[in-house]
Amino acid sequence: MSLYIRVLPLVQSDKLLRMTAKAFKMDLKNLSFLHNKAYVNGEWVSAKSGKTFNVLNPATGELIGDVPDMDLQDVQVAIKAAHDAFPSWSSITAKERGILLRKWYDLMEKNAEEIAKIVTLEAGKPLAESKGEVAYGNSFVDWFAEEARRIHGEVLQSPIKSKEMVLIKQPIGVAALITPWNFPQAMITRKAGAALAAGCTCVIKPAEDTPFTALALCDLAAQAGIPKGVINVVTSDRPNAPTVGKELCESPLIAGLSFTGSTEVGKLLYQQCASGIKRVGLELGGNAPFIVFNSADIDKAVDGAIASKFRNCGQTCVSANRFLIQDGIFDKFVEKLKERMINLKLGNGIQSDVNQGPLINKAQVNKVEGIVKDAVDKGATVVCGGQRATEIGEQFYQPTLLTNIKTDMLCYLEEIFGPVAVCIKFSSEDEAVTISNCTKRGLAGYFYSNDVTQVWRVAKKMEVGMVGVNEGIISSAEAAFGGIKESGIGREGSHHGIEEFVYVKYICFGNLQ
Ligand code: ADP
Questions:
Q1: Is residue 184 in a domain?
Q2: In 395-448, which ranges are E strands?
Q3: Which is it for strands 154-155 and 164-171: parallel, antiparallel or unpaired?
Q4: I need a surface site. Which of 132, 149, 251, 472 has the fewest CB within 10 A?
C-alpha cells in the first residue's frame, strides 16, 4: 500500500490510520549493524554505571533500542584508548592509512542500504534522503583516503647559506568529534575521514537522538581493519552531554575538537577549549538567505527552494531560512512554491513515496509551532500549512508557507530548522543584500539570477562561507564546507578539511657548510 498523505487536505480514515501504524514498523532483527553497546578500544562496551537510555523512532514514537548512557569515567577510558592508539596510527604511512580508509569506504558502500535504513529509523528522514546522505557521507571517506597521501610539506628558500628550512605537517593527536542528529552518518565521516587520514585518532560523541548510525559505522571500521582505539564512540543521553563534552574539551590528552551543532553549544565548547588552547573546528547554525531576482528562471528557483528548504524537513544548517523575492516575480514565485509544497507527501520515511518525515523530537516540534504562532500573531499570512500534522504522527508538522513577514518576527530572526518557508518581498539588489547580511550567522546563502554582472557582485557581497548561485544543493566532499561570523570556524571537506587535524612544524637544518 502506498503510504502517504497529501498535506492539504488532511483527510484520513481510521482504516488507513491502522494500516499506517502497521506499515510504520520495521523488522529490526534484519538490521545486522544495529548495536546497543558503545565502541571503545575495539570493544562493544556498556557504561560503567550500567545505565542506558532509550532511542525512539521519531516517525512513530516507538522504541528502537537502548544504548549506554556514558559519563565522565567512560569518556576518560575512551580518550585514553585513543591516546594509546595514536603513536602507532600516526606512524604508519599515509598510504597505509589511505588503504584502510578505502576498505572502510568499500564496506560502507556495500552496506549503504542498511545504513540508510538505520538513519531513517532514528532520524526520520525519507529513505531516499538517507541513501543520499550515506552516499554523501561515504564520499568523504573516499576523498580523504586519497587526500592522506597529499599532506605535503614545503621546502623553503633559505636566506642563509648554511641553513635549510623545511615545513612538515603532523597530526595534532586525539580529536574529539561531537556530532548532531540531522546527518547522523555524514557528520561523522566528514570529520573522522579527515582526522584519520591526517593520522589522528578520535573519540566521537554522537547525538543522543541518533547513536545507532555511529555504532554501525564502528562495526564497519572494525571489519575494515582500522585498529582498536583509533575510532571510539561514546554514547550519552542529553543530561550527561555537558560532562562528557567538557572532558572532551578539557582533557590534556585531547588535542582538538571538531563540533557540529547549535551556536549556543558551540560557544560553550569554544570557551571550554580555550583553557587548554585546543584546536577548534565549529560548524554551527545558519540563517541562510535565498534570493530570487527578477531575471531568474522561476521554475529552477522553485526547484532549488524545495530542495534547500525541505530536505530533512528543513532540519539542516544550510537550509534556506529566508526567501527574499524581488517584487516583479513575488506573486508568481509564491504561487508556484505553494503548489509544490502542498504536494509534498508526509509520512514514515521508510515508505518509498514519502518525501517529508517527522521533526526529530518534541522540542523541535514545539519550537517550530512557536515560531509560526509568533509570526501569525504579528500579522503574517499563512499561504499553506500552519499546523501540526497530528493525523500522521505526534512529531509531524505541515509544510508551511508564510508571507507578510516583519523584521521582529522569530521566523525572520532565528534559524527555523523546520518545514516553514518564509517569503519576504524586496525591490532593489542593495535591499536584498542588506537583508541577507543583517544576521550574526553566515553559513550558506543562495541566489537565483541570470544577470552575469549581478551574479559576481552579489556572490562577493554575501556574508557567508558558501554561496549557491542558481543552485540549492551545494555540499560535496571536494568543496570546503563552513561558515563565517557566528556560524563557525574552520572548513570540512576539500583539502582544507585535513588542515583542521594537522599542525605545521618548522624544521631548521643548521651548520650545513
Ligand atoms: P540540537 O539543539 O540541534 O540538538 P546541539 O548543539 O544541542 O544541537 O547538539 C549537538 C551535539 O552536541 C549533540 O551531540 C549533543 O548531545 C551535544 N551537546 C549538547 N549539549 C552539549 C554540551 N553542553 N557539551 C557537549 N556537547 C553537547
A1: yes
A2: 400-403, 420-426, 441-442, 444-448
A3: antiparallel
A4: 149
In total, how many domains does the chain have? 2
- pLDDT value for 244: 98
DSSP code of residue 89: H
Q: Would you state the pLDDT for residue 390? A: 95
The dihedral region occupied by 158, where left means phi > 0, alpha psi between -120 and 50, and beta the remainder, is beta
* Distance, CA of 75 to chain centre: 23
Share of the chain above pLDDT 70, in %: 95
First to last CA, the chain: 82
**Residue 15 belongs to a domain:** no
The reply to whether 212 falls in a domain is yes
CATH number of the domain that 96 lies in?
3.40.605.10
As a whole number, the mean pLDDT across the chain is 94
Residue that has been written with the C-alpha cell 573516499 in this structure: 142
Domain match, 261 and 136 both: yes
- Cα-to-centroid distance, 262 and ligand 1 (Å): 7
Residue numbers of the domain that contains 353: 288-475
Pocket around ligand 1 at a 6 A CB cut-off: 178-180, 205, 207-208, 241-242, 245, 261-262, 265, 268-269
57-64 average pLDDT score: 96
- Give CA–CA dist 446/427, Å, rounded: 17
With a CB cutoff of 8 Å and minimum separation 6, the contacts of 478 are 143, 493, 494
Whether 374 maps to a domain, the answer reads: yes
Mutate to test the pocket of ligand 1, among 213, 238, 265, 316 (most ligand atoms within 8 A of CB): 265
